[in-house]
Design a protein that fits this description.
By secondary structure, this protein is of the alpha/beta class. Strand 6, helix 6 and strand 7 form a beta-alpha-beta unit. Helix 1 crosses helix 3, helix 5 crosses helix 6 and helix 5 crosses helix 9. One of its GO terms (cellular component) is cytosol. Pfam families: Glyco_transf_9.
Length: 264
């Protein structure tokens, strides 16, 4: 998957967080000053982030301060090359994409919670396509159950006839690129969805702050309690046995969040 800059495009829908409308692009507090500060004192990175500027804006300002400004008309957003065709896997649109896995256990929901969060949207009339990596086939099957379409491990090149030369990440991008919404934790597929411009229901585990790590530049909903007991703990494993942070979000919360991004 090759990344490149593209001009800023307006978001497809208003962004939402916790049921309250917010802007898709956060306000930036003097990113140019932050960039200059990083050039003069790289150890100040933590201080710059805590002062409020978004990470991407600070990075662009850092590049400008180092003598590499953006070209005129380049808004700094990322894009992928045209994504491969994946309708043979997903069927037609529209559909929503839950991605239940996470590399950090504290950011993942229990499978039974994920399955309920598939069941309710399906009962409400939404098509659901559940994605997962090659090591998440069992998890994806449990979450999809009989209600959703499980694609665990099926976004690798070998699974797409005629596309063997494509990287797995590019193929995975084809599924959310044609989705109406992606439902996932603070993990890579949330940012992949943002890259292809798909709204995200971010089941963000508050073990790390959402402000600087949520999906950037697209409409999103941030359901759940960001002040849960695990907040700012930096925990990589579940704070209590069987109770990861995202389990504070109910299936009803997920359904309401999906419908919010679909109708806004």
């Amino acid at each position: 998957m090759a990344l490149a800059h593209r001009p800023v495009a307006p978001p497809r829908r208003p962004a939402l967080a916790g049921g309250v409308a917010v802007t898709a692009e956060p306000a930036i507090a003097e990113p140019a000053i932050a960039g200059q500060a990083l050039v003069s004192c790289p150890d100040s990175f933590g201080d710059v982030l805590s002062a409020g500027p978004a990470v991407r804006a600070v990075g662009l300002a850092l590049a400008a301060a180092a003598g590499f400004p953006q070209p005129v008309g380049d808004g700094g957003l990322l894009r992928v090359r045209p994504v491969p065709e994946t309708r043979d896997l997903t069927g037609g649109s529209p559909y929503a994409v839950p991605h239940p896995g996470a590399g950090v256990p504290a950011r993942a929901r229990r499978p039974e919670h994920g399955a309920q969060a598939v069941r309710e949207p399906t009962a409400a009339g939404h098509r659901v396509v559940v994605t997962g990596g090659p090591g998440e086939r069992e998890l994806t099957a449990k979450v999809a159950s009989a209600d959703g379409l499980g694609l665990g491990g099926r976004t690798g090149a070998a699974e797409l006839a005629g596309a063997a030369e494509l990287a797995g990440a590019a193929e995975l991008a084809g599924v959310p690129a044609r989705a109406d919404a992606v439902v996932t934790g603070n993990t890579a597929p949330a940012h992949l969805a943002a890259t292809v411009g798909t709204p995200v229901v971010s089941l963000f585990a508050p073990a790390v702050p959402a402000e600087r790590r949520r999906p950037y530049g697209i409409p999103y909903v941030l359901p759940g309690d960001q002040d849960a007991p695990c907040a700012d703990s930096r925990a990589r494993h579940r704070p209590a046995p069987g109770r990861p942070c995202p389990d504070t979000v109910t299936a009803h919360d997920v359904l309401a969040a999906v419908e919010k991004v679909l109708t806004s």
